[in-house]
């Protein structure tokens, strides 16, 4: 099938923005900022090849809106006006390649190892300990919640001033906005807890604050779970999350991207194999765990790896288990992330009405020109779901760490660099 006849390469509107295709780059932490959260040339170098490959929409890794919401070193921030100039340089470079660029805004909440993020404490709707990290957060007060609403809106304004085409609110994967949605982590008895209406209040107030500052033409999308995947805990099932999405649609969001799970869930959001992943984690973020947890993980790593390989085997489009329910209830675009590797699987998901678009993270890390290769039916480096990149996230730059795939990627980028160099006009002076 030619690109002209493919649903994957048909246009899609998100708010006021028209995109020429339906395969997007989802958010992955770049780990390329400065310790103070400023964008660097390395961030630009990460995104430019993805944009050059024709990717219609790129979403940044999570950008913290306040210093106490930082989840890892070298994470980008939008917590102060002094970050705007550096962010704008990245945006300009992406725009020069023709891609649209959204900033993902986030607060990590309780999902943090404070020494790793160089943070004194963690916050959440309630003081429920994170069973993975051992972090027990402080429950946010209402004034603190209201301050965070303003900080999210301030960050959105900074991103708009930097030139971003829209923002994504990260309400998935157990981060702060997700923690407010989930009864397991939100045990409040005030206006921010209890009913689903109340548990969406924080996000709704953020959306209203952004709209009040930036109007209705600036796209605001939300990443949220299709399932919390929290067995034996009071996590949300798909039906309840669809109900939350309907409420947020009424509030004026322009699209939803569907993921799955919390940190406590294990690895349902990155199905594959975990030998390299867990080994790398022990050398990175997990080395900052409390001593007992660190020792237990090191001793039982082979068993944890075996169990993870059995429980979360790689397959394409694993969040398509949830997206059809969102499609039936929403009129805004539904984007599905989760293990997509082939054009056939992507096209089938859209053609069958299970989602309006698909997004990928690890596949773009392995092959920045993934979109072009899919469109032109040409081979490129293929992610093998080893999750070595996931193990490094937060500690080392987002990169493919599989030796064979990485070698293919480097060779491809070198060829592309040579081609671009040959196309440059002569710099000789004309007398």
Automatic annotation (TrEMBL):
One of its GO terms (molecular function) is oxidoreductase activity. It comes from the Bacteria. Residues 8-258 form the NADH:flavin oxidoreductase/NADH oxidase N-terminal domain. Signal peptide: none annotated. Keywords: Flavoprotein, Oxidoreductase. This is NADH:flavin oxidoreductase.
């Amino acid at each position: 099938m030619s690109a002209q006849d493919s649903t994957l390469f048909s246009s899609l509107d998100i708010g006021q923005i028209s995109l020429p295709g339906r395969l997007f780059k989802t958010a992955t932490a770049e780990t390329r900022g400065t310790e103070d959260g400023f964008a660097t040339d390395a961030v630009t170098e990460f995104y430019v090849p993805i944009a050059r490959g024709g990717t219609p929409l790129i979403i940044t890794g999570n950008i913290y809106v306040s210093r106490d919401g930082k989840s890892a070193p070298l994470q980008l921030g939008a917590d102060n006006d002094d970050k705007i100039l550096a962010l704008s340089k990245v945006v300009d470079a992406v725009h020069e390649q023709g891609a649209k660029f959204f900033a993902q805004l986030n607060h990590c909440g309780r999902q943090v190892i404070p020494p790793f993020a160089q943070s004194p404490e963690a916050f959440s709707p309630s003081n429920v300990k994170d069973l993975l990290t051992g972090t027990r957060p402080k429950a946010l007060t209402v004034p603190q919640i209201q301050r965070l609403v303003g900080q999210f809106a301030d960050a959105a304004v900074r991103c708009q001033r930097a030139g971003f085409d829209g923002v994504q609110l990260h309400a998935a994967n157990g981060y702060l906005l997700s923690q407010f949605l989930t009864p397991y982590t939100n045990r409040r008895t005030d206006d921010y807890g209890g009913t689903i209406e109340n548990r969406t209040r924080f996000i709704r107030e953020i959306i209203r604050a952004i709209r009040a500052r930036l109007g209705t033409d600036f796209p605001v999308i939300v990443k949220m779970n299709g399932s919390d995947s929290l067995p034996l805990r009071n996590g949300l099932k798909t039906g309840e999350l669809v109900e939350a999405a309907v409420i947020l649609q009424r509030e004026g969001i322009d699209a939803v991207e569907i993921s799955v799970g919390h940190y406590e869930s294990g690895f349902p959001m990155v199905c594959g194999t975990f030998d390299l992943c867990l080994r790398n984690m022990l050398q990175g973020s997990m080395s900052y765990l409390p001593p007992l947890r660190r020792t237990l993980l090191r001793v039982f790593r082979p068993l944890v790896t075996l169990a993870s390989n059995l429980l979360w085997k790689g397959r394409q489009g694993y969040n398509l288990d949830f997206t059809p329910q969102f499609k039936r209830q929403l009129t805004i675009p539904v984007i599905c992330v989760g293990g997509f590797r082939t054009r056939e699987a992507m096209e089938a998901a859209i053609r069958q009405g299970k989602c309006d678009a698909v997004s990928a993270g690890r596949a773009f890390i392995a092959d920045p020109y993934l979109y072009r290769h899919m469109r032109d039916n040409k081979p490129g480096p293929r992610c093998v779901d080893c999750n070595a990149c996931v193990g490094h996230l937060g500690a080392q730059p987002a990169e493919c760490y599989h030796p064979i795939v990485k070698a293919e990627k480097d060779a491809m980028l070198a060829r592309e660099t040579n081609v671009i160099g040959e196309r440059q006009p002569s710099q000789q002076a004309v007398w």
